[in-house]
Amino acid sequence: MEPPQSLARLLPAVEGTTASSTGSSKIVQIDRASLRANGLLAPENHQRRLADEYRQIKRPIIAHAIGRGPDKVARGHLVMVASAMAGEGKTFSSINLAMSLSLEKDISVLLVDADIPKPHITRTFALENEPGLLDVLRDENMRVEDLVVRTDVDGLSILPVGKQSETAEELLASARMEQIALQLGTQDPNRIVLFDSPPLLLTSESRVLAGLVGQIILVVRAGSTTQQMVQEAISYLGEGRSIGLVLNQCEMETKTGYYYGYAPSGSGTAN
Questions:
Q1: Beta strands of 48-128 (E only): which ranges?
Q2: pLDDT at 67 (0 to 100)
Q3: DSSP, res 117
Q4: Residues 235/242, Cβ–Cβ less than 8 Å
Q5: Looking at CB atoms within 10 Å, which of 32, 107, 253, 259 has the fewest?
Q6: How far is the C-alpha of 42 from the C-alpha of 36, rounded, in Å?
Q7: Burial degree of 238 (CB within 10 A; 0-12, 13-18, 19+)
């Protein structure tokens, strides 16, 4: 289902808010009631259960991103949220994971809309007219941090997709994209960057993006995504990768709608 044009309002920074030396001067005011009504947040009577599920999902992500010892992985603070095909619940998962991560006391989260063909994150948060990822990829004189937009959720900010162009896909696959990803990841040692990416089996750009991050979250829709699709998507990601599977809309004895676990990479060994 295509998300509606906007489920948030973009406001100028108001008096009393903390100013930042970088980032947009505007603030996204998130309409949680509209997000729930459009299926992008859980209904209030299921909110606690979903919150518990995303706590389980985010713990290994945090450990791999900023943990100590063997749990920490290279570029683990750069996380790609992907799916094999469209319609798996990737946007829902990206938003809820980002909001769950923002609750952590010592962590901030940046949600980057890198799904160029279908920039649902940008539309959902009313950022269609704001400069973003594609603009900074085109213009080397722009600073990516200047385009980051804060939200009214503490610890959560968004980088919109930016102005579309005929070469948008090539920009995402460029060397400049790797520079931008590294800049976003080094700006704050306690920041986790979530890239909402195009489906792995539909575009080659998502596979390029996968090579820039340390963690990959693959969203799988129960009863819809076939095992062959999942295996094919994983095979594109290469060997030795940290790949987490989020199985959504599943029915299990625990009555949970989500399951999180680690998938084997191309080598056939668990990560």
A1: 78-83, 108-113
A2: 81
A3: S
A4: no
A5: 253
A6: 6
A7: middle
